[in-house]
Specification:
Layout (H helix, E strand, L loop, with lengths): L1 E3 L2 H11 L2 H11 L35 H24 L2 E5 L1 E2 L2 E2 L2 H12 L4 E5 L4 H11 L6 E4 L2 E4 L1 H10 L1 H8 L9
Parallel strand pairs: 1-5, 2-5
Antiparallel strand pairs: 2-6, 3-4, 6-7
Helix pairs in contact: 1-3, 3-5, 4-6
């Protein structure tokens, strides 16, 4: 049984998208050539955008109020709390890129295959749902890569460590220690 938890992440995806156009345009202008010269035809750095029918709404100027910044902070804190609660409350948690049915990365697919071979019930969490998810999970585990496997509130490892542990039977030992039902062989 798999459950995908991304309810808080979905709240932020549209808010994060509203910030990208101006950031991207700024990066584009700043890296336009190797000499650092910004051509005179480049729009002013203030992001002067025409608000006309030809300009997509995502690229039109918006007023940002302090309340929207506060709500973004609150939403980010909600994501972090959801991650901590998931790790604490669920027996087996896989932080991966994509979903178990559709992994976006080969390493995530390998770890899903191991968990499926062991017949494990686990909760998966798509780290691509929002950048906060990916960075916060790495911060919690002090591990630089995704996917990451957690068992009973303890970080087990990334794909290479988990594969070696499963092949040697050590991963099954961790599951046994926590009385988590699984198959013995992968």
């Amino acid at each position: 049984m798999r459950r995908v938890l991304s309810r808080h992440c979905a709240l932020l995806s549209s808010a994060a998208a509203t910030c990208r156009p101006s950031t991207f345009a700024s990066q584009l202008r700043c890296s336009s050539n190797s000499s650092g010269f910004i051509p005179p035809t480049a729009p002013p750095l203030g992001g002067d955008v025409n608000k006309d029918a030809d300009t997509h709404p995502d690229f039109q100027p918006r007023i940002v109020s302090s309340s929207s910044v506060d709500s973004s902070y609150d939403e980010i804190e909600a994501i972090k709390k959801d991650i901590r609660d998931t790790i604490k409350d669920e027996e087996v948690v896989l932080f991966m890129k994509g979903l178990p049915e559709a992994p976006v990365c080969g390493f995530s697919k390998k770890l899903v295959d191991v968990l499926e071979a062991l017949g494990l019930e686990y909760t998966s969490f798509d780290v691509l749902a929002h950048p906060v998810v990916r960075t916060y999970v790495k911060e919690l585990s002090d591990w630089p890569t995704i996917p990451q496997l957690w068992v009973k509130n303890e970080f087990v490892g990334g794909v290479d460590i988990c594969l070696k542990m499963a092949e040697s039977g050590e991963l099954q030992g961790v599951l046994d220690k926590h009385h988590i039902k699984h198959r013995n062989k992968i």
